[in-house]
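Quick entry, no commentary yet.
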Amino acid sequence: MSNLEDRVARTPRPSLPLPLLQGAGGLGVNTPLDGLDLSGQDLTSASFTKAQMKGTNLSDADLRGVSLFACDAVGAKLDRADLSGASVELGNFNGASLKDTVLEGAFVTSSTFARADLTGSDWTDVLLRADLKKSLCDNPTADGVNARTRVDTRESLGCAGPAPQK
């Protein structure tokens, strides 16, 4: 077990009843999740549709295929999270940290990422509207290489040229 895995395993987590997070039938999560520490957890059977997740810590979480549709995740921490194939459409990720996050094949239509930290994030096979792609490529943190996938952030976004100055 690596130092990171050991630290994650020893970190206390809130006890959330899984039914609270499981398929809400598109109705969304009724309990605010603002500021909770859900880091390092396997949340692949959860649904965060329309969830209030301001400042929630989802670092190192397994969110593959999860619905974060229309969630409000302003200032959330998603560092090193795996969002492959997740639906983050209409999500508000303004000011969120997505350092080394994997979003391979995720659905991000009409999501917002203003002032988000995109350092080392992997956007491979993510279909982006032209205006969202421009916004992401204009972000000075859209730079670096993902530590897990070894994919260059700007290359995965399809950006031309180097990142703008910070």
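second:
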Amino acid sequence: MIVGLFTVISVLTLLPLAGFAAPSSQAKQPQGAIRLTGGEQCFAETGHCLRGVFRGYWAANGGITRFGLPITDELTEGGLTVLYTERARFEFHPENRGTDNVVLLGLLGKELTVGREKEKPFQRTPAQGNIATVYFDQTGHNLAAIFGSYWQANGGLAVYGYPISEAFEEKSATDGKTYLVQYFERNRFEYHPELPAAYQVSLGLLGKQAYQKLYGNAPAPIPGKDYGPAPISLAAFRQEMRWGNNLRTLSVLEQGGSYTKYSIAYSSGELNISGVMYVPAAQGDGPFPVIILGHGYIPIAEYYTGEDSRREGPYLAQNGCVAIHPDFRNYATSDDDPNAEVNMTAPGWTEDTLNLLDALKRTALPYIDATRVGYWGHSNGGQVGLQLSVTQSEIKAFVLFAPTSPNYADNFNRWQRVREGSANGGPSLVKRKYGYPEDNPAFYAGISFAPNAGRVSAPMMINHGQSDTNTPYAWSVESNRLLVAAGKDVTFLSPRSENHLFSDNYWPTAAKQMLAYYEAHVR
């Protein structure tokens, strides 16, 4: 008998587990929500994904061991964006931005024990007076010694809430066996002596129970399939709440006569993004307009922080602009997004830039004027510029050097399809998740500039050398055609002999053209 093992528990009552309560005859239909911005981690076992701050909270607080797998994507409940895992319900509270309470766990323990208040384990009881137990007068229950260490070591009150029952024996609806359990406001602890010591205290499958109680057997909706835009799409980026925070300088990397170069970081959803920032030396003359610098595709192993804007950053700072070069997710010391490449790389960079725009609005750095922002991008950074131009309205002008194609299928076929084929023995990750362009043209159109050109929000300069051997010049000819056809303000420059990286001979001309464009549209 389990009873003999725990002298700190005076009375153990065998009760049937509330289990997977039968759903109400008026079971609701789950309603999908727009995805949270940030990284993404999907699980084939359940077909659902964790994104943004939900993924960050899950990973930082025990992951599968504590919460289990996600059994839904984002849902809307009572005005909140929520997500169910096997053992919990995550709630997104944007009103708590800047605190540790942006993600809170639902009070599933309380919700699933409504109606059991008269059962003996749930009635208030006096303190046991045992040094091994902790009594909480707030709820009138003792934290059982067998669960106390786990409760304290794994988040305590903030994660699990107060105990709302004594420890007692209950029959599991999962396997029909009887276990020692104790209910807390947000979960149920179970003691499994048959497991290795590290796993003997387990959490109940309250997420599954709560979902079934509310929604019955209704399958959780899949974004992009059952509702709304696909999570990776320009339409989703236009709708999602941006979550950029804590733009800050970390150290001085270089201090010259005309500018200071800083190492910086900011938050993009749950991801920490590294980068560099060039600030005019005469900071007292600020605040200054901001130009965001988007680097091109470089293999992660070869990239160093701030690469690909070594000429543009200093030049802009010398001419009275703050130039910010985000490294983007997975690069340099930025956090990793597990699905960055399978999600086509550039859309993640676009999200990081949208969140940088949000962080600019919130920064206390006195030399930044977040109302005057321009964007420069090279190659894949130019692709980010194309995507940004149809997903936001704050950026006042774009200057793109040798941008990639306005039809994303072109970019995939030229570069990523080759990388996918060489890296995987079987069907590629992209093939399994999205299909190739010939399989799923709608997905590729959803992340393409071409069908969205009529949404362009600001003037754009495209500068593409006709001798580019990396990124076809014809792609920018097509982008220019689309912009002209849509009646947009576009300037198209096409130096005849320039390659993908502008030569030192042409660079001064390109720099002056770039600066004049920002002077006309951003300052």
